[in-house]
Amino acid sequence: MTTPSQTVGPFFGYALPYAQGGELVPEDHPGAITVTGRVLDGEGEPVPDALLELWLGETGTRGALDRRGPGVSGFGRCPTAPDGSYRFRTARPATPYLALLVFARGLLKPVATRIYLEDAPDPLLDSLEPALRATLIARAETADAYVFDVRLQGEEETAFLEF
């Protein structure tokens, strides 16, 4: 007998978010970038209780949860603030994108997407129509700061991946 799926969240704040979860690299890491944004629902309203996981293709010299030393962690987890905002500090990826999982109320399972730091040739991006493609590209504010909003539904809904 199979147990039916249930929506995820709201999240009990013990052990899912953890101290410095959005900091994949130390403050002084050379070439570090910051990715910020907001998670928005179908009406464009902030989702204050989502949980995001950011994954790098390579993990460097440290374990995923180890935030000590000069290396790069390959994994970060960050809850959204009351205004739906989030923030990650990470190394620039070796691939053209960062992988992002979004857990939010109303979802049966987390949704996966990618954060592209620029509009460059890529098999996934090349396969998408321009409007959908645009939902995966972060807006550069400076050379090391990017903004990427996640829209769960509605106009300009973020492209989510199926595996």
Describe the structure.
There is one protein chain. By secondary structure, the protein is mainly β. It has a single domain, classed as Sandwich (Protocatechuate 3,4-Dioxygenase, subunit A), CATH 2.60.130.10. It contains two helices and nine strands, in the order E-E-E-E-E-E-H-H-E-E-E. The chain has helices spanning 123-126, 130-134, and strands at 32-40, 51-55, 75-79, 85-91, 97-103, 111-116, 139-142, 145-147, 150-151. A hairpin with a 7-residue loop joins strand 5 and strand 6. The chain is globular. Keywords: Dioxygenase, Oxidoreductase. Belongs to the intradiol ring-cleavage dioxygenase family. Pfam families: Dioxygenase_C.
Characterize the largest beta sheet: strand count, sense, and whether it forms a barrel: 5 strands, mixed
Helix content: under 10%
- Judging by the overall fold, what is the CATH architecture? Sandwich
Instruction: Report the sheet-strand fraction.
Output: 25-35%
**N- to C-terminal distance:** 24 Å
Strands, count: 9
Question: What structural class should be given to the helix and strand makeup?
Answer: mainly beta
Give me the oligomer status. Answer: single chain
| Net shape | globular
Query: CATH homologous superfamily name?
Result: Aromatic compound dioxygenase
CATH topology: Protocatechuate 3,4-Dioxygenase, subunit A
Summed up, the domain count is 1
Number of helices: 2
Could you spell the SSE succession in H and E letters? EEEEEEHHEEE
CATH class, named: Mainly Beta
Low-confidence stretches: 61-65
Overall residue-averaged pLDDT value = 85
Radius of gyration: 16 Å
Family: Belongs to the intradiol ring-cleavage dioxygenase family.
Keywords: Dioxygenase, Oxidoreductase
GO molecular function, one term: ferric iron binding
Protein name: Protocatechuate 3,4-dioxygenase subunit alpha
